[in-house]
Amino acid sequence: MSTLANQLVKAEKEELARAIRILLGRPLISLQADPEVFDLIRRRHHALARWFDYYCGWRLLVEPRLGYARLVKVTESADPSRPARRRRSTRAPFDRRRYTLLCLIAGEALTTPVTTIGMLAQRVVQAAAADEHITGFDPVRGDERAAFADALRLLEHYGAVTAIDGVTDSYVDSAEAKVLYRVDTTRLLRLLAAPVAPSAVADSSNDPAAWPDLRELTVEPRYGAAADPAVSAEGASETQRNLWARHSLLRRLLDDPVVYRADMTAAQLAYAGSPTGRQIIRRAAAEAGFELEERAEGYLLIDPDSLASDGRFPDEGAHAKVAALLLLDVLAAQPGNRAFNDLVEESARLLDRFPKWARAYQSEGGASRLTGDAVAVLCDFGLARHAGGSVRLMPAALRYTVDREEA
After folding, report:
1. Which of 228, 328, 366, 367 could disulfide-link to 348, CB 3.0 to 4.6 Å?
2. CA 260 to each of CA 25, 208, 297, 310, 383: distance values in angstroms, whole numbers, following the listed order
3. Are residues 37 and 217 in contact, defined by beta-carbon separation less than 8 angstroms?
């Protein structure tokens, strides 16, 4: 019996670790899209909710009847490296117009459980016209319909709206397209991961300078003054300071590719250096199935199954990531800052050497674009910093260097 009990405990721990990493990589899990994973999260719901609440201060919402699980990942600021992307083939990031239409569509969709694309478009026309600060929506224009369809497709991807008759993309070709939608208002409301409701910071002033700072949406009162490094934390209790240090540090460790000590606050450094802090960080990593690397420069969590991340590096399937890997050797050969234009020359030589490779960059200005995309990859993964026309290699990049021995 003891052997069986040990096996059950081990299986439960493995399932919990797997579910944690899946939710970190995909904060919204649908029964329809992934029934096996949803069933795993449903079965381990209470243990998962306790884990995320204790280590990160994040809420896990599981709705068995509605068929979805939502991890509400609150962060102190928006992450520009993770934009919403168009669901069509280009996968291009959303622009300002698409974000605006996304908000308008979501607001209007909340008013009815069933609607058509034409009715929804007309409601958006009226909503945009009622606000002088929003450019009016014109469904006659093809580019406007394309932006509208992109916003709707994203909501479909999240399961907030479902096309029960017709196809959303047909609206791009004709404003007379017929598409019928069912709206999941509860899921739509829970897409917004903000501890403060937008209505709580709304301001009816016509002066843009008087409008509220949208960062107020992410303020979490439970941390008090401890959450603002620019303000003295003397007004916060020791419990608030420790709670904020634990949650903020583990949020970064679980969300960012690498966390450098130089980028941590004094409170986070003190917490990470304390016996209790070190123990909690190591325990969190072990319970989630991560391998923790502790270096003099910072911390790195490694997921051996690549479940917790929405991006991979190295990755031979993307030209920019292949170029980024090759540029690492160039940067490592010269410590310190390297001029961006020097890297462009390296990319040009690479394109000349392989003329049939990376055809999208085999044109005028292609070397500069390839370098920009490759450097952006390195920056996104915490391997480099780009500022003032120069690129600097970061310590984590040394994990990808190759030592060559002369014969």
Report:
1. 367
2. 21, 36, 6, 21, 11
3. no
pLDDT (tens digit per residue) in 10-42: 889 999 999 999 999 999 999 988 999 999 999
Q: Which DSSP state fits 196?
A: S
Q: Which CATH class is domain 96-189?
A: mainly alpha
Decide: 104 and 144 in contact? Cβ < 8 Å: no
Question: Measuring CA to CA, which residue among 205, 283, 230, 223 is closest to residue 57?
Answer: 223
DSSP for residue 218:
G
Task: Give φ, ψ of 306 to 5 degrees.
Answer: 55, 40
What contacts 24+ positions apart, CB below 8 Å, involve 153-158? Answer: 153/86, 153/87, 153/88, 154/84, 154/86, 154/87, 154/94, 154/102, 155/102, 155/105, 155/106, 155/109, 155/188, 156/87, 157/87, 158/28, 158/187, 158/191
Alpha helices in 192-297 (DSSP H): 238-255, 266-273, 275-287
Q: For residue range 167-223, list pLDDT tens digits in order.
A: 999 999 999 999 999 999 999 999 988 887 777 776 655 666 666 677 777 788 888
Phi and psi at residue 282, to the nearest 5°: -65, -40
Token match 């329809």: residue? 32
DSSP, residue by residue, 109-159: HTT-SEEEHHHHHHHHHHHHHT-TTSPPP-TTSHHHHHHHHHHHHHHHHTT
pTM: 0.87
CATH topology of domain 319-400: Arc Repressor Mutant, subunit A (1.10.10)
Q: State which amino acid sits at residue 267.
A: A
206 and 199 in contact (C-beta within 8 Å)?
A: no
- Quick one: CA torsion of 226, 232, 234, 239, rounded to 10 degrees? 10
Give the closest residue to 110 by CA, choosing from 198, 188, 48. Answer: 188
Rounded CA separation 292/283 (Å) = 10
Dihedrals φ, ψ of 91, to 5°? 55, 25
Q: Distances in Å between the alpha carbon of 385 and those of 254, 343, 388, 395?
A: 20, 14, 10, 11
The one-character DSSP state at 85 is B
